Amino acid sequence: MLELMARGGMRIGEVLKLRAIDVEDCKLFLLNPKSGRQNEIVFIPKKVADRLKEYIRSKNISPDERIFPLGYTGARQIVKKAGRKIGVEIRPHDLRRHAATFASRSGAPIEIVSKIILRHANLSTTQRYLGKVSDCEAMRWIENIFH
To answer: How far apart are CA 78 and CA 106, in angstroms?
Structure first.
């Protein structure tokens, strides 16, 4: 559940609605997403997809069954508890923000972060997610680009 938010950029509500039938290799099919579109695709890394498929098999989850049969409150508690274990205060949406920031700092073009990872309609929404760049980060990028 945590990896889907932190590596797939998924919203907590999307993770909680996910059914076994929605998982196809490294693609997750979202029906009636927040965007208002009929459906969307979430791309996840192969190792995350493999763990998710193994989880589905190990729990013997049927195709139409939700993978994580929890409510928002229960899921939020799991995220907070995981954060406390490593000494960090986090909320579910922080993991989605992490996916965007990590991809951006790893050199992914803003269009990929916006349209593919976060599935935002507007680039300006993604830019708010990414926030400000520190002077240190700016200098590191300048040095890498123009070395």
So the answer is: 28
